[in-house]
Amino acid sequence: MKPILFFLLLHSGSSLFAQMDLPPDFLARLDSLDMRFNAPLDSDYREKTLRDENRWLEDHYTMSSRREKLEIRFHLVPEQKGDRYYGLPHLAATTLAMNLGSNDEDAVTAVHSFGTEEMAIYNADWGRMYTFRPKRSFSNKEQAQLIALYREGRGLAYTILLFDDAPDTLDGRQVSLRFR
Questions:
Q1: I need a labelling partner for 168 at 20 to 30 A (CA). Which of 41, 66, 131, 148 fits?
Q2: What Cα–Cα distance (Å) separates residue 166 from each residue in 63, 69, 122, 141, 145?
Q3: What is the rounded distance in angstroms from the CA atom of residue 165 to the CA atom of residue 19?
């Protein structure tokens, strides 16, 4: 947890997404949820276009780093009355994690509930981290971490980290998104 606090203290005062070219539609989605994007400016991240359309989740923005051997995908869902998961982020996030996770018999999903300190960092009302082996139709990486953050009246934000071996920077990448 200390690396996350250090990362946030280091970058909390700067508007990082101004230094990284982000697509206008992703910026609009960030604004609609009143979210801050913490760009990984200390590495070689580049925007990535997925070749195949994914039936499991529409990525609103994807980037990857050759140096870190890490791919990060983002999906933002503004809260809307009438949505079947309205006010139920725990159901929406768990359903997504189960849909993205491998159905192999030996596949395991671990769930981490964030504590008060972590929730304050994300400025969220609710949050969970799911670690699992992704379906091959979603990613060819060995591991996935899905960070789901919810703020009442704003919506759900998903950060999906995909990797074979966890890079040293993984803790810092887990806070790529947070509510303002």
A1: 148
A2: 16, 8, 21, 11, 10
A3: 28
Helix, strand, coil % (nearest 5) of the chain? 25, 30, 45
Rounded Cα gap, residues 21 and 27, in angstroms: 10
- Give CA–CA dist 94/100, Å, rounded: 10
For 35, phi and psi rounded to 5 degrees?
Answer: -110, 155
> SS3 string of 80-134?
CCCCCCCCCHHHHHHHHHHHHECCCCCCCCEEEECCHHHHHHHCCCEEEEEEECE
Q: Give the integer Cα–Cα distance in Å for 68 and 71.
A: 9
Other beta carbons within 10 angstroms of residue 56's beta carbon come to 14
Determine the Cα–Cα distance for residues 126 and 115; give it in Å rounded to an integer.
10
CB 128 within 8 A of CB 113: yes
Mean pLDDT of 129-140: 94
Are the C-beta atoms of 74 and 55 separated by less than 8 Å?
no
Query: What would the pLDDT profile of 150-171 be if each residue is shown by its tens digit?
Result: 999 999 999 999 999 998 888 8
